[in-house]
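## Example pair
The file below holds two records. Each record gives the amino-acid sequence first, followed by its structure token line.
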Amino acid sequence: MFRKENVKVLDAQSDWLQSYIRSPEKQQQLYKRTLMVVVLSQIFGGAGLAAGVTVGALLAQDMLGSDRVTGIPTALFTLGSAGAALLVGRLSQRFGRRLGLAAGFLAGGIGAVGVVISALTNSILLLFISLLIYGAGTATNLQARYAGTDLAHSRQRAKAISMAMVSTTFGAVAGPNLVDVMGEFAISIGIPALAGPFILAAAAYILAGFVLFISLRPDPFIVAKAISEAQRTTGNLRVEEHSDLSSINRRGIFAGAAVMVLTQFVMMAIMTMTPIHMGHHGHGLKEVGLVIGFHIGAMFLPSLVTGYLVDKMGRAVMAAASAVTLLVSGGLAAMGPADSIAVLITALALLGLGWNFGLISGTAILVDATSPSTRAKTQGSVDVWIALSGALGGGLSGMIVAGSSYSTLSLVGGVLSLVLIPVVIWSRRSEK
């Protein structure tokens, strides 16, 4: 009896999957619906992401009383995001995007609650543990960009990535500019002001998780895997072709990963120390929030245009553009007057734009190089390296500034970004 019921359930699942496999129209309908759900979740996810970026270093400085360790919060929540990226990727590969992404956002919300409690109790150990868990939200926020590509055609992929990212802008820009408001709210309920943005982060991440868990049905990744398997079974994708392309796929995975890893390292290193640099030159929380708000806006808002350019001009061209933009940003941050808000806004906006170019072009390269049978797992593994590079950049940034200066950090980051150009040239040559 039990086996018969299981067979009926499997048959029912097979029927609804077959309806998508047989109908390109239904696939496109699900593709559009998935983008809408991802867009909504990313609005909340962006607000959660912004809290740690804006005040994480300042909270550590306040609790630990030293500039030398101000890079630790960024290192911790990006290190936590590395572990979460691996887990979310594995969960998504096995159970679909819905469960993987929802679990990641809910974990990030729990971590944000822990940060608030650590500030209230002045517990350094709890702060560090909570920042690690909070990093799950950062990882999930990035992994959500893949969900829109599962059912996208090759010429839609960069656009799908960009739509997921541009929606993050609304929450990500609002978050830093609510620093003062959330700080005042926190004080009114007896919590330190710098923990206020993490109250917003907790609510935002948990809402993002619920949106995905409730609305991301049918799961686009499960449908994409079923379509790929059906194509193999019917011989639409020949085994010989996959064998011939295997080395190119490995090169594509490496190239896409390298672009994203390097842009993440440079961006996190310079961004992490900007609030501290501003504090040393007399800027308050309001000015810090304004600069970081423009930075995060530039990370996500240009995405629709970037996605179009990546699809039309090519992945390699936009990856090279990322390197040049990051170089200009580093030079301006290093040589511009530290008391000029306009210069800092411009430098950090260019930093965000360079990261945007690199992430979207690198993601498109990676998606092009993978198949649904291993895609989510590979994406999760690559995002681990992205998160680790961010953790390394954030952790080293405080040491470099303490041992030298913010100008040195910015110049080194800008010059280092030029490594992307030989990677792009190698990638293009290997395709010929």
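Second record, same layout:
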Amino acid sequence: MNEAEETRKIQFTGKSSYIISLPKQWILDLGLKRGDKMRISRQGSTALQIYPPEFHSRVTPKEDATMEIDAEEEPTSIIRKLISLYFLGYKKVNIKPKMGRLKPAQRTAIKGSVRRMLMGSEIISDSTSGITIQVIVNLLELSVDGAFKRMMHLAKSMLNDALLSVKEVNLDLAKEVINTDDEVDRFGFYIIRQLKIAIQNEHMLKEMKFDNARICLGYRLVVKNIERTGDHAAFIAKDLLEFKKGIKKEVFEKIQDMNNFSISVLDDACLALFKEDYVQAEKTIVRSGEITKYEKKVLDSTRSLRDDEEIYRIRRMTENIRRISEYASDIAEIVLNINIEKVLKKTS
């Protein structure tokens, strides 16, 4: 048990109240004294939170936010502002025109972004005079680890499906890969939102099983790398839609081997993250460098090709796949940074 935890017995007093004592040092550390009031809130079905009222008002984001937009404001600008408010942890966002009415293009963009990007959000009011968005999902319903694992699974599926679409020259599957990229981003935005809230709330940090707020920054960087993984899978799919041609079988098989290797390294990096395994992370960084061997085999196999366009496409595919291995190495480095202090403690 660490210094921030103690076990105290619940006692019964009077006819209908239970009381529990608090450690003296905790009270002194928080600058509290006899007679000060404390807030008690229930956190789901398994936890209670006790805090001074001033602390609660300082770390809890405001419930509502109102965003006024100009009639000529571009939909992309509105969406960027909406995502920023989502990240800040607001539970309700009101979007209103400064003057007149919302334009159809603005309304369509807002509703589309809520559906495609903002997990746990629902539109509860929609008219030309404004749109209200309610965020109903919270940490207890979907943990950061749970969201990250689903995000990771989607990104890997995108890579495999992108390669399959090229192999079969399946344009419909390529389109599905591109659409799935929005789903990956939805999980990423949700995780970032929860991390930003947790940085200001020690209770949420404990719910996530994070030792300190610094780990949130590490996870934020990991999420960005997984988002980029999905982006590169989408690039491969877009290439097929552009050229509508497959790749020579003997070359494609080597590209498939390269892709399988990149995914396996990414798996190793994420496993090291979940296990908080410093040694595994070091091994992953070393192993990720082997991607150059696979890339060389692919490029060597193109020497017999005479179609410059096909050679160009193959080089673009190998570049996208090599980036995945590089992202795996970046994630492993983050694991090293997060867990270095644990290694030093074991050594000492």
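Notes on the second record: The chain has three domains: 11-59, 64-135, 144-339. The beta strands are 11-13, 17-19, 39-43, 47-51, 64-69, 92-97, 121-127, 130-135.
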